[in-house]
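Researcher: I'd like a candidate sequence for this fold, 288 residues long. If you have to choose between options at a position, lean toward the conservative one.
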């Protein structure tokens, strides 16, 4: 049996979908978890689970024993670059041959602070001597079901400082499909792919789609930046992340993340998911 593929961030939005694809596709897969992780879905798939701490290079090296390929998605935290560096250093020591990173759209042009963080990690990967693939994804459609569903259900509205800006939102399941192909096929080493959904949508257009799918009136409410800052700070979000997100939202207002890519279809052979299809699949999250 070939060495396992490792998924770091296996309980995250893209990681859990990728693990499912690898496991059901008959591939040996190993997934990193934390002691507090909800492991039930992964256990049901029968995949190998290993505990690893992104702050502990030794634990990552142990998790990578026998691994040839690894996918990683690091959470949006102030030390995201340092945590990613730990993964790269561990991979080099463990002899991993191919690293696949969930990156961000605009990393190639250092579009904003978040993109600069991603680019710093990409640069280290390029210099590591390990084959790499960067999946530069636009914002997830799942952000609406994960973070805004409660206000949509309770108030018939979602709130964001996006102005009239548009984003080419992508279904995280499409990212997982691309990652699956990259990890199980040849020809993707040392490449970068910009991944988006099939259309750039504004908050008002998202609200219209959600209203049609749910059968109830849903509004998009544009929030002033200062109010958004206060809300995020009140939720305990680190100052560095708050300012980076506000900068990203400003970039969105200027139209810089509205670019649509055909990469999902080119790599997987399947068209990228439309927001209507995503909303229909997650309808219960929006109606309660």
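Model: Candidate sequence:
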């Amino acid at each position: 049996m070939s060495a396992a593929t490792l998924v770091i961030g296996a309980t995250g939005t893209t990681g859990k979908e990728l693990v499912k694809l690898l496991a059901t596709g008959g591939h040996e897969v190993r997934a990193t978890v934390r002691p507090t992780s909800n492991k039930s879905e992964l256990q049901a798939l029968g995949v190998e689970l290993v505990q690893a701490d992104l702050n502990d290079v030794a634990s990552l090296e142990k998790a990578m024993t026998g691994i040839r390929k690894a996918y990683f998605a690091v959470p949006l935290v102030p030390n995201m670059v340092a945590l990613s560096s730990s993964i790269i250093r561990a991979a080099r020591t463990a002899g991993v041959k191919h690293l696949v990173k969930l990156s961000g759209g605009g990393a190639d042009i250092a579009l904003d602070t978040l993109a600069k963080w991603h680019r710093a990690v990409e640069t280290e990967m390029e210099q590591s001597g390990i084959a790499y693939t960067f999946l530069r994804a636009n914002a997830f459609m799942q952000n609406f079901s994960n973070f805004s569903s409660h206000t949509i259900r309770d108030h018939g509205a979602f709130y964001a400082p996006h102005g009239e800006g548009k984003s080419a939102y992508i279904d995280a399941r499409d990212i997982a499909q691309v990652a699956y192909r990259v990890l199980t096929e040849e020809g993707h080493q040392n490449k970068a792919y910009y991944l988006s959904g099939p259309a750039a949508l504004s908050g008002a257009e998202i609200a219209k789609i959600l209203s049609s799918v749910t059968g109830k009136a849903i509004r998009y409410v544009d929030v002033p930046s200062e109010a958004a800052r206060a809300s995020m700070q009140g939720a305990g979000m680190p100052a560095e992340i708050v300012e980076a997100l506000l900068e990203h939202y400003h970039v969105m207002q200027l139209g810089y993340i509205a670019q649509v890519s055909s990469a999902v279809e080119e790599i997987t052979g399947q068209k990228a998911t439309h927001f209507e299809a995503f909303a229909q699949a997650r309808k219960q999250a929006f109606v309660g």
